[in-house]
């Protein structure tokens, strides 16, 4: 299933695939029933998971932990300078991603 195409047209595309998301980027992923978007807030210490702030994550707005490879694209506004952008290790609590409904 294709990612939510409307968000792909949002300003500059940071990366294709889950290679280098940055803090504050909008992550875009495909799923059964449509796409899902969420803000990147951090990564796990081993770099295998992303912590994403989104709505409709287990029927609430919350930070959830996702496998890094489930995200199709990351976008940021065209004015966002990504030259020195980083992705911090997220140390607060978060649930594993579940339902996006």
What does this structure look like?
By secondary structure, the protein is mainly beta. The chain has one domain: Alpha-Beta Complex (endopeptidase fold (from Nostoc punctiforme)). 4% of the residues lie in helices and 44% in strands. It is built from one helix and seven strands, in the order H-E-E-E-E-E-E-E. It is globular and about 35 Å long. The two termini are 18 Å apart. The relative contact order is 0.28. About 6% of the residues have low confidence.
Please give the CATH architecture: Alpha-Beta Complex
Q: Unreliable segments (pLDDT under 50, ≥5 consecutive)?
A: 14-19
Sequence of secondary-structure elements = HEEEEEEE
Number of domains: 1
* Residues in β-strands, percent: 35-45%
Total beta strands: 7
Q: What order do the strands of the largest sheet run in, or round the barrel if closed? A: 1-6-2-3-4-5-7
Question: Which of globular, elongated, flat, extended, rod-shaped describes the shape?
Answer: globular
How would you characterize the largest beta sheet? 7 strands, mixed
> Any idea of the CATH class?
Alpha Beta
> CATH topology, anyone?
endopeptidase fold (from Nostoc punctiforme)
- Per CATH, the superfamily is endopeptidase domain like (from Nostoc punctiforme)
What is the terminal-to-terminal distance?
18 Å
């Amino acid at each position: 299933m294709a990612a939510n195409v409307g968000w792909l047209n949002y300003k500059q595309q940071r990366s294709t695939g889950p290679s280098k998301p940055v803090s504050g980027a909008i992550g875009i992923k495909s799923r059964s029933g449509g796409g899902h978007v969420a803000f990147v807030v951090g990564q796990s210490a081993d770099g295998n998971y992303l912590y994403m702030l989104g709505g409709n994550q287990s029927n609430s707005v919350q930070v959830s932990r996702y496998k890094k490879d489930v995200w199709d694209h990351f976008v940021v506004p065209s004015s966002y300078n990504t030259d020195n952008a980083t992705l911090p290790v997220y140390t607060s609590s978060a649930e594993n991603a579940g339902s996006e409904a």
